[in-house]
# Entry
Amino acid sequence: MFDANSYKSKMSKTIDVFSKELSSLRTGRANSSMLDIIKVDVYGQKMPINQLGTITTPEPRSIIIQVWDINNVPLIDASIKKSELGLNPQIDGQLIRLPIPDLSEERRIEMKKIVKSMGEKCKVSIRNIRRDGNDELKRLLKSKDISEDEEKKFEKVIQECTDNNVKLVDDKVISKEKEIMTI
# Structure
């Protein structure tokens, strides 16, 4: 039997990942989740910064990373500089200070493009999940496990879920773009 809820769950997880990616984008305020997308190559593997030190935001315009192992400071510094965040770390022993500059108009436009691109990738993932569901329905119909009426009913359910999630992505993109332009 076909389980539409598993496809709804996959789409929901895709939205969750997209939301997490959006929160990691640098807007006007310092936010420790901005560093979530940065991975540092230490101990033979790629690790997130929050597993290598304590991240705090003492002020709205700065992030401080208290690195636990002083040998990792230059590696974290290099990873931050290579990222698309446009931040310039200042090293003070085991402390890394990240001042968050105001967004320039050029950077705002660039950020809007990044948000749109992330939204499109998320929508493609959602549509791929829909395609997988429809393929499974066709396979079940071919093997006579479901009737044509059941196939049409489940296709409609998957399409409605897809439409709702695509609209949700569009709403999140618009909201993030407004946030970027008002900061």
Summary: The mean pLDDT is 86. The CA atoms of residues 93 and 122 lie 40 Å apart. The chain has two domains: 4-22+104-182, 29-99. The two ends are 50 Å apart (CA to CA).
